[in-house]
Design a protein that fits this description.
The chain contains 2 helices and 5 strands; from the N terminus they run βββαβαβ. It has about 90 residues and is of the alpha/beta class. It has one domain: ATPase, nucleotide binding domain (Nucleotidyltransferase, domain 5, 2-Layer Sandwich), CATH 3.30.420.40.
Length: about 90
């Protein structure tokens, strides 16, 4: 497991694709682009399975808009801490 226990995942949600970036907690934490994937629950599950194997705590921040309602519901269903960006 990674020495960094907590990360923040930023999601830029569009109809067809979602882009993800991760930021490690702390002032010296690294911020990097993770990748782009299809905007669907199966792809989001794969992303969080990978992240869950590497980090103990994951918080999500996503762009609030009509393409992101399903992300809110998915995060609530999977008990993932989330924050909305207006």
């Amino acid at each position: 497991m990674n020495e960094i226990a907590e990360i923040y995942v930023g999601l830029d949600v569009h109809k067809e694709t979602t882009a993800a970036a991760i930021a490690e907690a702390g002032r010296q934490g690294e911020v990097r682009f993770w990748g782009e994937f299809e905007s669907n629950p199966a792809a989001l599950t794969r992303l969080f399975n990978k992240l869950g194997n590497r980090y103990t705590q994951v918080a999500v921040c996503y762009e609030a808009g009509p393409c992101a309602y399903w992300i809110y519901r998915w995060c609530v269903q999977h008990q993932i801490h989330l924050r909305k960006c207006p």
